[in-house]
Recover the amino acids of this structure.
């Protein structure tokens, strides 16, 4: 069976499974629509949480980011994993004991204010809509390559699939669908990694293969990778950092607290029957997440070595025809990457390159007209390497590889079996669709439950609220699709931006709501608005959203990364600090919360018992 037919078959079967589960688990009440009736077993909720959490950013982009950034890319692993631990230990059990459906409902009740709830809805919508741009883009990327359609058509198909199981099934349908999606995506991620690890190092565990020696040599994989990338003018893979040390720390912190403030992940802990089940499901989710996150550095390093070996090794042409085994020999060789025969002939480029060129995510520009692909760092300060490259006729890097294709293309680069490539396609789509569904559920519940029922029409019937939720979900899918088709100018880095928004607005309010019984509504509202405003201002000034006649955008903040070298994607932690400072400052000069609110906060922190998840108390 040829590759394209295999992909159609595997992806089609996975979609049929998702829709079948949605029909079986369709929601019949508001409790099932918003919180799956509070009856999901901890292990299954752990799988669903992992699928909800491991988005297109984790499955498709994270290994690509680490592959490009090297050691500095570890901040994504530390930030996202650390944030999940923070969420599981400090927030989830208490929010579950509070017994509400949504984060805005918790904030509105805890801070005894509909205004606070409305501000929380605003923050939730900004963070979720920003985040969902990346998911829909991931859907378009995966479809455009693997199903042979344009990214626009891919997004339309993705919208239809999500509509089928999210609108009709609600949180109940989404939960059980995400269990299936987790199984698909984790198999799709680990199986190719095992194949490649065995081929390069002989070790079947990618986590151990990363630190092993290349097959038949005493050279470690990482040492060889350091040698390869430095020869090409890049920094050492094992020591390169993401900007300054301060920026790396703040970036990690922003991802961490942003994770703990993401509403679609928090909502998962309202679907289990008890507080003990919430803690248990958090532990299981961490185990399931760790399977992918501990594999990602290996995938990133091996993909980098594999790609460079294909393009720049002396036997690169052979590797395209004979597969990974020959390619492994190529990257182990000590061939001069600047020799005349050391670059790959464009006409003899591998089939995987030809397929990915059609997506526009891999591009070749023959700058010196020699018909060969020369891959080199244009920004290098290594004069020795630069001199060698120029002597070989180099006139600038000729190959552009989008980081988002690393995981999806890796099995093709390694010439793995067709069924493995098809499984990766299904896994990438499962990752993007599962998180998109979770985000849409958070948006829908914020609109129908927190705005319509909580503020505009408190006496709405359960049937009316359920219909409102489904309509809100359908509209949200249309908006999400439109954003995927027409991403705003600041779309690059939207995932990190979404975490920054959640970190600067929702996380501090949730933390203060649980652990500070004296925090009042005025402080919480002022904190959320100030944290959100400061973060968006810094980000948008970098991205050129503001327009001031006669003034450069970056002049508004004193230049690029002007605040202690902190990048826009890392600024959420600074916004969170502003949130805390403003909240406590306002709290000191305003009236403290009523006695019954303070008693409620103390009761929520008592780790015994739980309330039913019915959204009413």
């Amino acid at each position: 069976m040829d590759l394209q037919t295999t992909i159609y078959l595997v992806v089609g079967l996975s979609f049929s499974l998702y829709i079948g589960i949605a029909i079986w688990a369709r929601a019949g009440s508001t409790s099932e629509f918003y919180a799956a009736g509070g009856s999901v077993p901890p292990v299954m909720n752990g799988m669903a949480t992992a699928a909800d959490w491991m988005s297109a950013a984790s499955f498709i982009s994270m290994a690509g980011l680490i592959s490009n950034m090297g050691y500095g890319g570890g901040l994504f692993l530390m930030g996202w994993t650390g944030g999940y631990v923070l969420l599981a230990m400090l927030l989830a059990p208490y929010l579950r004991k509070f017994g509400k459906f949504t984060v805005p409902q918790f904030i509105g009740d805890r801070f005894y204010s509909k205004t606070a709830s409305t501000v929380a809805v605003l923050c939730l919508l900004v963070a979720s809509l920003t985040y969902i741009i990346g998911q829909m883009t991931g859907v378009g990327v995966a479809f455009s390559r693997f199903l042979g359609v344009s990214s626009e058509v891919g997004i339309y198909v993705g919208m239809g699939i999500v509509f089928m199981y999210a609108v009709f099934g609600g949180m109940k349908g989404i939960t059980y669908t995400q269990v299936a999606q987790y199984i698909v995506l984790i198999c799709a991620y680990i199986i190719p990694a095992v194949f490649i690890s065995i081929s390069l190092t002989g070790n079947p565990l990618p986590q151990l293969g990363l630190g092993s020696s290349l097959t038949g040599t005493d050279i470690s994989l990482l040492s060889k990778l350091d040698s390869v990338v430095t020869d090409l003018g890049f920094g050492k893979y094992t020591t390169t950092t993401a900007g300054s040390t301060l920026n790396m720390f703040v970036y990690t912190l922003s991802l961490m607290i942003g994770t703990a403030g993401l509403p679609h992940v928090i909502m998962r802990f309202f679907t289990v029957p008890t507080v003990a089940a919430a803690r248990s499901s958090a532990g299981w989710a961490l185990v399931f997440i760790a399977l992918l996150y501990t594999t990602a550095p290996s995938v990133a390093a091996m993909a980098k070595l594999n790609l460079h070996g294909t393009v720049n090794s002396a036997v690169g042409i052979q590797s395209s025809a004979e597969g990974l085994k020959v390619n492994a020999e190529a990257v182990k060789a000590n061939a001069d990457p600047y020799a005349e025969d050391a670059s790959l002939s464009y006409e003899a480029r591998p089939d995987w390159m030809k397929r990915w060129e059609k997506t526009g995510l891999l591009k070749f520009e023959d700058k010196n007209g020699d018909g060969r692909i020369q891959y080199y760092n244009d920004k290098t300060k290594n004069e020795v390497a630069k001199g060698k490259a120029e002597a070989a006729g180099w006139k600038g890097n000729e190959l552009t590889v989008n980081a988002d294709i690393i995981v999806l293309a890796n099995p093709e680069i390694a010439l793995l079996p067709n069924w493995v490539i098809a499984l990766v396609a299904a896994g990438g789509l499962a990752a993007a669709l599962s998180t998109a569904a979770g985000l849409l559920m958070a948006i829908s519940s914020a609109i129908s439950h927190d705005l319509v029922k909580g503020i505009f029409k408190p006496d709405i019937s359960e049937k009316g609220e359920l219909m409102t939720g489904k309509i809100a979900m359908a509209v949200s899918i249309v908006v999400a699709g439109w954003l995927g088709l027409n991403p705003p100018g600041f779309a690059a880095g939207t995932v990190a931006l979404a975490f920054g928004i959640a970190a600067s607005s929702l996380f501090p309010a949730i933390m203060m709501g649980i652990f500070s019984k004296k925090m009042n509504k005025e402080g919480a509202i002022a904190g959320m608005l100030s944290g959100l405003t400061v973060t968006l201002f810094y980000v948008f000034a970098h991205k050129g959203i503001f327009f001031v006649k006669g003034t450069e955008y970056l002049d508004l903040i004193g230049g690029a990364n002007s605040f202690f070298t902190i990048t826009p994607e890392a600024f959420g932690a600074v916004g969170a600090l502003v949130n805390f400072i403003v909240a406590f400052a306002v709290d000191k000069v305003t009236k403290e919360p009523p006695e019954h609110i303070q008693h409620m906060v103390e009761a929520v922190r008592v780790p015994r018992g739980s309330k039913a998840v019915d959204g009413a108390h």
User: Anything to note?
Assistant: The chain has a mean pLDDT of 78. Residues 533 and 575 are 8 Å apart (CA to CA).
